[in-house]
Amino acid sequence: MKRGLGWLALTLGWAGPAAAQPAASLTLEQVVRQASESYPSVRASLEQVSAAAAGIDLARSAYLPRADLLGQLNRATRNNVFGLLLPQPVISPISGPVLGRTSLANVWGTAAGLLVSWEPFDFGTRAAGVGAAQATRSRAGAQTAVTRLETGMAAADAYLTVLAAQQMVRAAQAGVERARVLDQSVQTLVKNELRPGADASRSAAELAAARTQQIQAQTAERVSRAALAQLAPSAAPPVRLEASGLLRRPAKLERAASEPAVHPRAAAQNAAIEEVRARQKILDRSWFPRLQVQGTTFARGSGANPDGSTGGSASGLGPNFYNWALGMTVSFPALDLPSLRARRQIEASNERAEAARYQQVLQELNGQLEKARATLDGARLVAENTPIQLVAARALVEQAGARYKAGLATIVEVAEAQRLLTQAEIDDALAELGVWRALLALSAAQGDLDPFLEQAR
User: Fold this and answer.
1) Radius of gyration of the chain, Cα coordinates, nearest whole angstrom
2) What percent of the chain has pLDDT over 90?
3) What is the distance in angstroms between the CA of the first residue and the CA of the last residue of the chain?
4) Where would you tag: which of 10, 96, 297, 418 has the fewest CB atoms within 10 A of its CB?
5) For the chain, what percentages of helix, strand and coil (3-state, to nearest 5) are there?
6) Per-residue pLDDT tens over the stretch 317-335
7) What dihedral do alpha carbons 271, 275, 278, 284 form, nearest 10°?
8) What is the C-alpha separation between 417 and 423, in angstroms, rounded?
């Protein structure tokens, strides 16, 4: 028996802590950080930055010499003809003397060679290409900052929405409990024929309506929790959201003024302008001569002899004539000027369009900032007023209940007072969260969520 009790105690002692282990909690800052770092749109934006960084390396590779290797083996006829042939990709070139007759005799031919080319100077064309690649990377990085800000803003708003839904559930539960107590009291009074039967029907209807409100609140909580988990998977149930610091008014509501030009959206649009200007620099340096310093060595072999005879069956399988050369080539796109002018006009129009979008972004940010400030002021006033509403609603419920017991009030007055109290509890619970949400909107309009997250800790 003692062994059985000891084994039972050991089992309960082992299983007890696991069963009593509280659910993990997640703070607002953790949710925002997770969404800002691992949400798919953020990861996609980071990959675009990586691709743009690789583009810089690609542009810099233009400074390196170019080396081309060639090896060829063929078996063909050797008939040659005098005359000019314009450049084309179909007829293969052939070297050697022109024979007096055409023959279908064929021989082996081989070729191997190396050509090294290098452009010692280019009037800034390659530097402009590198600058354009760097501008593309800067734009991608600025857009990543915008994506992080928008994702973090959405995650924080979803977090506050879940907390608001939870507060509504608590208020709805309290309303159900009050309606249940009222219904029990009225049913007792009606049963004892102290109140008319209509009061029982009304109290039952009020209880059902309170339960409906509770169900709606619970549904809203589940929907908002699913929306939050979409942005931050770690926030899915049964993880508990840490709300202690968000159910009180922020200690500091005023934010230092910030210039819209430093907002990530404005920075991203300004980077788009710089990218267009970088492309213009490439066009400005495109109508210049191109100088290539070249060095080559090559060898060829053929089974055909100058007198028209051919060698043995293996003749020409290996190169047997060698050459080398050093020199330079200068090329100039003389007739590219009209197309370059048209491309410059296109880029100039693109620059003006991006500049107009930049002004539009600044105006939008100024408007969002003013709206956020007005919303914050209104949320603060509401948070100061809802406690008064709550105290008055509680007093009204007590007074209506006392009057109903004394026969001086109807069940309608009691039910209306309870509904007012439930709504007052909801308004008071959401008022503080409304201040936090307005402060979040202000932080997003200023382009920096860190001060908001520091206050929410």
Assistant:
1) 41
2) 31
3) 53
4) 10
5) 65, 10, 20
6) 888 889 999 999 999 988 8
7) -130
8) 10
Ranges of beta strands (E only) in 189-270 are 240-241
pTM of the prediction?
Answer: 0.78
pLDDT in tens, 399-418: 988 888 878 888 888 888 88
**What's the rounded Cα separation, in Å, for the pair 337 and 233?**
56
Furthest C-alpha separation in the chain = 136
Could you tell me which residues are beta bridge partners of residue 290? 331
Tokens found for residue 239: 């993880």
Instruction: For residues 26 and 38, give the distance between their C-alpha atoms in angstroms, rounded to a whole number.
Output: 16
Q: Which stretches of 92-243 are assigned E, i.e. beta strand? A: 106-118, 240-241
C-alpha span between 109 and 90 (Å, rounded): 19
Q: Which amino acid is at 421?
A: L
Q: Give the pLDDT of residue 3.
A: 43
**Which CATH architecture group holds 24-76+106-302+319-456?**
Up-down Bundle (1.20)
d(CA 203, CA 184): 9
Mean pLDDT of the chain, nearest integer: 86
b/e string for 149-185 if b means 16 or more Cβ within 10 A? bbbbbbbbbbbbbbbbbbbbbebbbbbbebbeebbeb
The Cα–Cα gap between 182 and 247 comes to: 30
Residue ranges covered by each domain of the chain: 24-76+106-302+319-456
